[in-house]
Write a structure and sequence with these properties.
alpha/beta, 5 domains, four-stranded antiparallel beta sheet, 17 helices, 15 strands, elongated
Length: 472
């Protein structure tokens, strides 16, 4: 029977008033043994001892086997191939016929290892003193396709103001661009930036001995912050941003967002981070936004010169009118064949320059050994290569098969075909197909093919130039 504090109070009061143990037991309907135990006050009901039981399944042979497994791990000294408690339990069942529970083995392994809970020191940062950054990943739907994006997360340590940016790849160009965008978002630069030992920032070493990559060295010098690195496997050293990675996945990216571009996703992320400023963190004196106003005054002023985050190279245009960057080939207008050009590889785009002028832009390809062609780059030469049109890689890559078949059946001359291709370059094949089918009163053919979108606005001038040259 469980004796409550109220029962204990009645037993003590009745005993002190002169009642016998028999009378107390009869009155309260409690056994005489219980009354005898508590009446004189030598025992209390809230102090119950848990009996220590000797686990019979943990024989000397079992304990020796556990110790041998742990000793073997120390001898091999392979960090990622060590016995877990589960593995020891499985081996005991198979090799020793152990019939006890897994929790029993877990407790014994913990006892033998002498594991203790880690103790962390609470930290306090001054306004503008430090910012923590980290990478995470999440699933999204981009143009209907489910992909994994990399999330660059940054958080000021005093106010806990966050910013999250999405990139397709976690490379140095993305890393440097994300930092520049972060400083612009906060409107200033903290004294320190705390990061782990990722290869995008660290060339070799780790922690206090880490050597920065050349790009990160230049960026830290330009913005005037001190780059600090955590010790290996010590995520608590940047716990603020570690929490931000999980928070952004659970609170912004659930349900899984469906977007048409990374710009749309980044706008969603930025809006939610701005909304977080109204939140007040437990233990903080004010809301995140109010504390950010205080912190922003202490941030260092942004430099006047725009830092170049792109990966740059100088290359020669090949006979196929392409330039190679990061193992992939990107097209340029055919009149630059054989010229020396400059290529800038940004996080998501490729820009190609000739004598300071942009002559080509492409969405950056994340695959290897691919060729990316813009249709309008090759139209001038296709004007004179009549038999090559339908086998030309720029045509096949940028137009779906059903549209190409339609062109074959519904163009009566090479001139008419080229006019339609020029319209495709200017307005997109979907609009051209739609307009011509409507005018000819043909049924619209349903299709499921998706093609990479091309930003044609930057080529309008080039297209006009090529057309005028063609007319001359």
């Amino acid at each position: 029977m469980i004796i409550t504090v109220e029962d204990y109070k009645k037993i003590r009061q009745m005993y002190l008033s002169g009642k016998s143990q028999r009378q107390i037991a009869r009155k309260l309907k409690i056994s005489r043994n219980t009354v005898s135990k508590y009446c004189e006050g030598f025992a209390v009901p809230w102090d119950r001892k848990v009996p220590e039981r000797e686990t019979t399944v943990l024989t000397k042979e079992v304990i020796t086997f556990i110790q041998e497994c742990l000793d073997e791990d120390k001898k091999e000294h392979i960090k990622k191939q060590r016995h877990t408690a589960k593995r020891i339990y499985d081996r005991l069942v198979v090799e020793k016929g152990f019939n006890g529970g897994e929790s029993t083995i877990r407790a014994k392994v913990k006892e033998i290892k002498g594991l203790k809970a880690k103790v962390f020191v609470p930290l306090i940062f001054l306004p503008g003193e430090a910012m923590q950054i980290d990478w995470g990943s999440a699933k999204i739907y981009l143009n209907g396709e489910r992909i994994t994006v990399n999330l660059f997360c940054a958080r000021l340590c005093f106010s806990c103001t966050p910013i999250v940016l999405a990139y397709r790849r976690q490379n140095q160009e993305s890393f440097l661009e994300a930092l520049v965008r972060t400083f612009n978002f906060f409107g200033g630069v903290p004294e320190k930036v705390i990061f782990d030992n990722g290869k995008v920032a660290v060339k070799e070493g780790f922690g206090i001995n880490a050597k920065k990559q050349a790009g990160y060295t230049a960026l830290s010098a330009h913005y005037g912050f001190e780059a600090l690195f955590c010790n290996p496997a010590q995520g608590h050293e940047k716990g603020l941003v570690e929490g931000l990675v999980g928070w952004s996945r659970r609170n912004i990216l659930v349900p899984i967002p469906k977007v048409e571009s990374l710009d749309e996703l980044n706008q969603l992320l930025e809006n939610r981070c701005l909304g977080y400023r109204s939140h007040q963190i437990r233990g903080k004196k004010a809301s995140v936004g109010e504390m950010f106003k205080e912190e922003k005054e202490q941030l260092r002023v942004l430099p006047g010169y725009k830092f170049e985050t792109a990966k740059c190279s100088n290359v020669r245009v090949s006979t196929y009118s392409t330039v190679r960057f990061d193992s992939n080939d990107y097209s340029v207008p055919t009149n630059y064949c054989g010229s020396n050009v400059s290529v800038k590889g940004f996080a998501e785009t490729i820009e190609i320059y000739f004598q300071g002028k942009v002559i080509g832009t492409h969405n950056r390809c994340l695959k290897k050994h691919c060729s990316i062609y813009s249709l309008e780059h090759y139209l001038p030469i296709l004007e004179t290569r009549k038999r090559a049109v339908f086998n030309a890689a720029p045509v096949v890559q940028n137009l779906p098969p059903e549209f190409i078949n339609w062109l074959k059946k519904n163009t009566s001359s090479h001139k008419e075909l080229m006019n339609l291709l020029w319209e495709c370059a200017e307005h997109g094949w979907k609009d051209v197909w739609q307009n011509n089918i409507t005018q000819a009163n043909f049924p619209i053919i349903p299709h499921q093919i998706e093609v990479d979108s091309v930003n044609l606005s930057k080529y309008d001038e080039l297209v006009a130039k090529n057309r005028s040259a063609k007319c001359r």
